[in-house]
Amino acid sequence: MPSDHSETGLELRTVSIRLGGQELLAVDLVIAPGEIVTLMGPSGSGKSSLLGHICGTLPAQFDVSGQVVLNGRSLDGCPPQDRHVGILFQDDLLFPHLSVGGNLAFALPASVKGKAKRRMLVENALKNADMDGFADRDPATLSGGQRARVALLRVLLSEPCALLLDEPFSKLDSELRGQFRSFVFEQCRKNRLPTLMVTHDPEDGSAAGGRVINLA
Amino acid sequence: MLRFVPIITIAFMIGPVSAGLIGTLLPAFGILPALGGTEPGLDPWAALFAQPGIWQSVRLSLVNGLIASFVSVAIVMLFCAAWQGTRIFRAMQRILSPILAVPHATAAFGLAFLIAPSGWIARVIAQFAGWDRPPDMAIIHDPLGIAMIAGLVAKEIPFLFLMTLAALPQADTDRTAQITATLGYGRVAGWFKATLPRIYPQIRLPVLAVLAYSTSVVDVAIILGPTTPAPLAVRILGWLSDPDLALRFMASSAAILQLLVVVVAIGIWGAGERIIALAGGQIAANGQRFRHDGGMRAGSAVLAGLSAGALILGLVVLLIWSIAGFWGFPDIMPRSFSLRLWQREYDAIGSSLVTTLLIAVPTVVIAIALVLGCLEHETRSRHKPGRGAIWLIYLPLIVPQISFMFGLQVFFTLIGLERTLISVVLSHLVFVLPYVFLSLSDPFRTLDPRYGQTALCLGVSTMRVFWHVRLPLLTRAVLTAMAVGLAVTVGQYLPTLLIGAGRFATVTTEAVALASGGDRRMIGIYGLLQMVLPFAGFACALLIPAILFRHRRGMNAQNRG
């Protein structure tokens, strides 16, 4: 078993989540770098709880067994901010008190020093998403599609080692959904991120082109 | 560090209450070494029961407290039943929220100036009835305490209304109202049968706080209540302030008696709840629909409007008196206006405002820091507090102030903190902490937890998430909670008076001290002064976020409510 920081992806070793003695879900899964695995299942099947467990924000009343390993490092007991696991929800959750640029700079690691350099990275990221010059805008003035893209850019700027997608396309209308979906998947592959997506929509699964796991 | 904050906060609330109760209980049975009481005995009780009219005072406290609470609850419930979800309801919501900032004493003075024999209402009637002198009636300080009940009701309605408002969404009331209406029920009947049973458990603790307060109130009773004899709490304060220190023993047993009165009141109220719940179960199932309840609805709007109107008119009449020149009886307005008194009192006003702030600023800062610490700890530990926690928060609001303030004074003397700013701040914190907590906990807990989760998953420390995400998102709620805290500390009469032992002349102690003198112009000035700080606080809570986030449209939605 590799213990160095080699890129072995995201491993869920016999992870089982229980609530009040009842098992919600059990998975055993390895997601390779750049691979997108889709998890489908009815609501209440514990899909979102699994994502919460992987990023370390699951409420204490859940009982969890098994191991979560990212690139050879066990994440269990590790606080969420030290896991390098990014998450996108169906709402963009842009911080309404910060500008678009402020939201992105919030995500940049502190190790990136210098105001000018940080500003440059933020503007480059916006440029890559065809959103030149949006840095000083109020997020509330953006369209739904633009907000979704900023939310993705924000996660990517935090330099995650894995990405979790919690029905991230369900609130976009069908035309936007296709565009944004391919943008997200392209970024996952380009950044070689092991990606776990939970969704209701079978189309998301087929668009991802990876394994699809049906729960329940 | 953070995990100790809830314990420290509870200690700040429960500690003084417990120490104060012990410090009252011991002298009540003859033990107070500082005054030579070393032998336990029942002498203080014998002395207390030998006081003339003691049972009449007890009866006044108990009966008037129960009536005032019942009337307040009934009006609020009726109004909500009749008007929930309508424009009138929203209008009342906008009127009543700022009124909550009016301190009890100011509200009582305003009401007194309206209904007194020479008050505004009598002056209006005089125009038509041709009176040339005030009617010879004891309208305020009436022996039955009706004026006092009116004052309490007017002031408690906004509080109970806002508490009910907070509970409404949790019972899915709008859809319940639709269902009862489509089943053919009148608005009021539908609400009482289907919504009230779900709402009431949520507002039960605030209702008990109102009941305990009304049964043991001091400042409103001094201003509006009967005097021969006065309600129990007022007489206790008299004995505590008596130069004859030996009376402290009897005062202590009276303070314990006051606690028992509150316990009995809560017992009676609880029995009433049971009976209503039992009868209500039958009535809910009997199919009576009361389709035509227009009269009831109009009546509830009139009652709610009257109480709000009385408070607002009361403030207006306070303002007019404060700048009145000569103002003879049947005249509706003074002959002349003058700022002479404001000028004469200028220095005194300044110093009482400074004293008030000297207490208020540290109290509010400590309270908001502790409450934020508790809520942040709750969020980080991802543990929900149990049911017991909410009782702890309400405890200081249910134990009558007069029952533990004297004991607390004894306690502070014992540890050498008597008459210090520290002890006054500590005594204010007992009451400020619960209100700040109640005001902030809902917005804090309903803030979408995914903001914090997203930020953490971006690799940001928990500290940064608090300071740069949660706190800015809650700016308006935090400032509002601070304004609530400010209003509570400014309105404190008994703790300032007893723990400060007269050293801290705040706007409120000054105002209540004027009650017996009857100088209306001075009462007008100090009654208004009491409101200046709370209103300034609430204005800041509205303006600061609006200015800070003027370029962030999303913050309006975030800060609504």
TrEMBL record, chain A:
The keyword Nucleotide-binding applies. It comes from the Bacteria. PROSITE patterns: ABC_TRANSPORTER_1, ABC_TRANSPORTER_2. The keyword Zinc does not apply. One of its GO terms (molecular function) is ATP binding. Keywords: ATP-binding, Nucleotide-binding, Transport. Residues 8-216 form the ABC transporter domain. Pfam families: ABC_tran (PF00005). This is ABC transporter ATP-binding protein.
From TrEMBL, chain B:
Keywords: Cell membrane, Membrane, Transmembrane, Transmembrane helix, Transport. It is a multi-pass membrane protein. It comes from Thalassospira povalilytica. Pfam families: BPD_transp_1. Residues 54-268, 353-544 form the ABC transmembrane type-1 domain. Belongs to the binding-protein-dependent transport system permease family. This is ABC transporter permease. InterPro entries: MetI-like (IPR000515), MetI-like_sf (IPR035906). It comes from the Bacteria. CDD domains: TM_PBP2 (cd06261). The chain crosses the membrane at residues 7-32, 62-83, 95-126, 146-168, 205-225, 245-269, 301-329, 349-372, 392-415, 421-440, 473-494, 523-549. PROSITE patterns: ABC_TM1 (PS50928). It is found in: Cell membrane. SUPFAM superfamilies: MetI-like.
